[in-house]
Design brief:
6-stranded parallel β-sheet, 486 residues, 56% helix, globular, two-stranded parallel ribbon
Length: 486
């Protein structure tokens, strides 16, 4: 069930129904921390062991604050009932939880460590520590937040020892070198970024799922092209200066088509990949090679000089269209009016111009296959670098934790054990969840069924995502709202 904060009393009461799962949209200042505390207290009054409840957040400070709030509420439950209504609710829930604790001899106030309030990283470390062999981590290394130097060391070793690699990898690396004109700096930056996001492609490489990987990439390419075209179309459709431009684009593209046989713009193209070449023709007519609005129009943009025509009507048309389009370009590059929207249009056309052609996908896949070969080798080299340094990064730990749980159709003993241990999972700041962490939550709840007594309680605000550098994907929050988890 979805809830939006700040809720009314009825909604808040609903959120404390410990037999149901919820995803709560909660902006800053809406009382989400209090609601999470109340939810934990309500659960503590029902479970057999406090360890059945696991509350996850993304920073140690937030985890410590949540733990302190729960403990303070339990301590206040030994005092008389407060006067404030919102304090009364928390007090009553804490009173029930404390009574339950005393009945089952938990001694929570004396043993606060039985409250499982943790960070996502600490949870991953715990999973890896419980299954060191399956997670492939062995003795737990130290986590570093900025692993770029270790990434760089692994990349340099790949470059330095190319001749010592098996032929398949050496040939692949040479192909990439040639494609990028032996630009070492560019390739180094590319590989660093790919290592940062390696959880997204490494499973396909390791398990040899290249056919599925190719399909995913092709689908992604079409989505990227469609998104860019939709943005350009939306901006142009609502821009007053573009109202009379179709005839001019038709005139210019018709002139260009005489020599290069390119597309003629006789109608506004649809925002779909099959019309990409038409959109790129529009961008080429409007922008210089440096992606600025043109100031001069020549035959190269589809505007031949008047002197090249003998017919008086053709001369008049050439002058008219060139004058109209020059005026349009001056308006678009004018910094005194509509600057923001004009810049947005220019940027959208630049993005369209830089899109790869879906028609050349087979050629591109040959390069991507070579890149995947090298990246697989690079991931192995990175693991060796981590082992040598006795360090690792968050991605490696999260990947190892996922491995330690096994697959949904082939769970490890650890996942089966956790399936029995964890009855209620709460996740704060859910909008900061990365794709890898989302998959981890999916695995932890993979054996859960509707109405089996186990619940998931997710809280977040899709309007803010503070951990962009940790690959947070706000779209996952929306996906969970619409489709649920597992």
């Amino acid at each position: 069930m979805n809830l939006a904060l700040p809720p009314d009393a009825k909604q808040r009461q609903q959120a404390l129904n410990v037999s149901q799962s919820f995803i709560v949209q909660a902006p800053a200042g809406s009382g989400k921390t209090e609601l999470l505390t109340q939810r934990v207290l309500a659960l503590l009054a029902t479970v057999k062991q406090p360890e059945e409840i696991v509350a996850i957040t993304f920073t140690r400070k937030a985890a410590a604050e949540m733990r302190m709030r729960i403990l303070k509420a339990l301590q206040k439950a030994e005092l008389p009932e407060p006067n404030q209504d919102h304090e009364k609710r928390t007090w009553r829930l804490a009173k029930e939880a404390l009574t339950h604790s005393q009945m089952l001899d938990w001694h929570l106030l004396e043993n606060p460590n039985r409250l499982r309030v943790t960070t996502i990283d600490a949870l991953c470390l715990s999973l890896v520590g419980q299954m060191p062999v399956l997670s492939r981590m062995g003795i737990q290394p130290r986590i570093i937040e900025n692993p770029e130097k270790i990434y760089l060391s692994a990349i340099q070793k790949i470059f330095q020892h190319i001749d010592k690699r098996p032929t398949e990898y050496a040939d692949s690396l040479r192909k990439i070198f040639r494609y990028f004109h032996h630009d070492i700096e560019y390739m180094t930056n590319l590989f660093q970024k790919m290592l940062q996001y390696r959880e997204q492609w490494l499973p396909y490489a390791i398990h040899g799922q290249t056919d599925e990987f190719q399909l995913r990439l092709q689908e992604s390419l079409f989505v990227i092209i469609s998104d860019a075209l939709n943005e350009a179309f939306s901006l142009i459709e609502n821009h007053p200066a573009f109202v009379d431009m179709l005839n001019i684009f038709n005139y210019a593209s018709s002139n260009l088509a005489v020599n290069d046989k390119g597309p003629i713009i006789d109608a506004w193209p649809e925002a779909s990949p099959e019309y990409l070449i038409e959109w790129q023709r529009i961008a080429d007519i409007c922008l210089t090679n440096e992606n600025n609005w043109r100031k001069k129009l020549t035959i190269n943009e589809g505007f031949p000089p008047e002197s090249s025509f003998k017919n008086a009507e053709e001369k008049a048309n050439a002058k008219y269209y060139k004058t109209q389009f020059t005026q349009f370009l001056m308006e678009m590059s004018d910094n005194s009016t509509h600057t923001q929207i004009n810049n947005a249009v220019r940027q959208a056309l630049e993005n369209v111009r830089n899109l790869p052609s879906p028609g050349h996908y087979d050629e591109q896949w040959d390069l991507i296959s070579a890149l995947l070969n090298v990246l697989t080798l690079l991931a192995v080299e990175l693991r060796l670098e981590f082992q040598t340094a006795g360090k690792t990064d968050f991605t490696e730990i999260a990947c190892a934790a996922k491995d330690a749980l096994g697959q949904q159709d082939d769970p490890t003993e650890l996942l089966l054990s956790l399936d029995n241990q964890i009855q209620h999972l709460l996740v704060d700041e859910f909008q900061d969840t990365s794709k890898l962490q989302f998959e981890l939550i999916e695995k932890l709840t993979s054996g859960w069924q509707n109405n089996d007594g186990r619940t998931l309680f997710l809280v977040g605000d899709p309007m803010q995502s503070i951990y962009r550098f940790r690959q947070a994907e706000v779209g996952l929050f929306i996906k969970a709202c619409q489709e649920g988890i597992g």
